[in-house]
Design goal:
Elements lengths: L2 E7 H18 L9 E7 L16 H5 L16 E3 L2 E2 L1 H5 E2 L4 E2 L13 H5 L4 H4 L1 E2 L7 H11 L7 H11 L5 E9 L4 H16 L6 E9 L14 H19 L8 E3 L10 E3 L7 E5 L23 H12 L5 H17 L10 E2 L10 H20 L23 H9 L2 E2 L1 H11 L5 H9 L6 H4 L6 H8 L8 E2 L6
Parallel strand pairs: 1-2, 1-8, 2-3, 8-9, 9-12, 12-13
Antiparallel strand pairs: 4-7, 5-6, 10-11, 14-15
Helix pairs in contact: 1-10, 6-8, 12-14, 14-15
């Protein structure tokens, strides 16, 4: 089984990673991570996120020995976390007193960021001292990435990604990247980190297959103190547009050039994308509508660290389980085949998946039967009209006194042929719960001669009489009112 590297980007990604770690520890007797799994949290906060009250792991061994471990599960800041931050003020704005020139229009970062906005901002010193997150600015996340990669392959961040890949004995590594598209860090970095992993992997004799699991803005609407506003949705939309582009372009000649250093000769850190960055993307939006029984709790109607992120973690842990590995690989192979079949000048459709927190069992057979009953009753009401005493009245067939007699029904009768009432009676006999059985039997068993009042007008022509007398009992005929001729 290929190894799995799980990367959480930004606050949501870190929260998901904590749940992943706890679930994996709970599942193992020794309370540690499986040897085939590595985790890495990446954020612009100087200390990793924590989830209060998540509790310690409770492995099978611990439960058998009645041991209780105290303290919440958390990401190890030394081995499982990279702080992608620091004070980048001098890098971006420069310092004339020390002869340092800031990033200008000739700097590669200017192709993706409006550097002047931050260099001229009255809050630039606070914004560019990145210690407490990206402050919902996607550009801040990118600035942090560029600053941490300016020394190229000797940069600590590059080396951290490289070491994580080298930790696997397998040549093939599955990467699961999780985060959100609503904030600053995750929304800005999920594409770049995927690209960097694809570029670094061959240098350490690895091949990576990357799956993304991303949370969209509306999933945050149950987080107290956080407003899902227009700016958050705008970030989500911009991130999704970028995601679709990087999923769509498969032709190397059309690939997007991504640059992280000023060294034009570095073909690892400064190169075009080759193929789609992700083999599959999962998107987590908002919870389902309220169930009919309000007593049923909905697991997503709560803070994101207690609802959405553990849900994503459960799915991620499932993907680490060898029991479904083959099915997941086959699924992705099928999608790749579909994408290849639709290739058009290097462009293919973007594929996304979805997953939920619970299943709804629907009584499909009962629903279909109910719909069929409704249909049969509707047909009977139009094609087998009855009089005030509930008896079949052939004088009303196709007339203006049909019980369902809206103007639409009347118009339909005159514009379109009506199926003979005997067929409607057969439907009613098989499906209807309300039609009087004797009425159905009367209609179904009626001989051709009994339908004379239906098919012939009060003063029929000789041709009509001859046609009627030639009718075959075993055939179905259509009645067309004179008004339609």
């Amino acid at each position: 089984m290929a190894g799995t590297l799980i990367i959480g980007v930004g606050g949501t990604g870190l929260k998901t990673l904590i749940h992943v770690k706890k679930q994996l520890q709970d599942a193992r007797a020794t309370g540690d991570l499986p040897p085939s799994v590595q985790i890495l949290g990446i954020d612009t906060r100087d200390t990793p996120e924590k989830i209060s009250g998540i509790g310690s792991y409770q492995s099978a061994l611990a439960r058998r020995q009645m041991k209780e471990y105290r303290g919440d599960v958390m990401i190890d800041p030394n081995t499982e976390y990279f702080w992608l931050g620091g004070n980048v003020y001098q890098d971006v704005c420069g310092d004339p007193t020390q002869g340092l020139r800031g990033w200008g229009n000739d700097h590669f970062a200017s192709r993706r960021i409006d550097l002047k906005y931050y260099q001229n901002s009255s809050k630039r010193k606070d914004l560019l001292n990145i210690r407490a997150g990206a402050g919902m600015y996607r550009q801040i996340g990118l600035l942090a990435l560029f600053a941490n990669l300016q020394h190229g392959r000797t940069s600590l961040f590059y080396q951290t990604l490289s070491r994580k890949l080298q930790a696997f004995a397998d040549l093939d590594v599955n990467v699961i990247l999780c985060g959100s598209l609503a904030g600053g860090t995750g929304a800005s970095l999920f594409l770049d980190i995927a690209h960097l992993l694809r570029q670094i992997a061959p240098t350490v004799n690895k091949s990576v297959d990357i799956t993304a699991m991303l949370v969209l803005p509306d999933a945050f609407q149950w987080t107290p103190g956080l407003e899902v506003d227009a700016s958050m949705r705008a970030r989500g939309m911009a991130s999704m547009r970028e995601m679709v582009r990087f999923l769509t372009v498969h032709d190397n000649a059309l690939g997007f050039r991504l640059q992280y250093t000023n060294d034009e000769n570095d073909q690892i850190l400064n190169s075009r994308t080759q193929g789609a960055l992700f083999s599959l993307v999962y998107l987590m939006e908002q919870r389902a509508k309220l169930p009919q029984k309000n007593s049923i709790p909905n697991p997503l109607t709560t803070k994101i660290e207690y609802g959405v992120t553990p849900t994503m973690a459960t799915w991620i842990v499932s993907l680490c389980d060898q029991s479904i590995a083959q099915e997941f690989v086959a699924w992705k192979a099928n999608l790749a085949a579909i994408a290849g079949a639709r290739n058009f000048q290097g462009l293919v459709p973007a594929f996304c998946g979805s997953f939920g927190t619970f299943s709804m069992v629907l009584p499909v057979a009962s629903i279909v039967e109910k719909w069929t009953t409704r249909l049969s009753n509707t047909i009977l009401s139009q094609m087998v009209p009855v009089d005030s005493e509930g008896r079949f009245d052939p004088t009303k067939v196709g007339g203006f006194d049909v019980p369902a007699g809206s103007s639409y029904v009347r118009e339909d009768w005159h514009k379109n042929p009506a199926v003979i009432a005997r067929d409607a009676g057969d439907l009613g006999d098989r499906y209807s719960e309300t039609t009087v059985i004797s009425l159905i039997k009367e209609i179904r068993d009626r001989q051709v001669d009994s339908w004379r009042r239906v098919f012939l007008d009060e003063a029929p022509s000789e041709e009509q009489i001859k046609t009627f007398e030639k009718m075959d009992e075993k055939k179905t005929y259509f009645y067309i009112p004179l008004a339609a001729n």
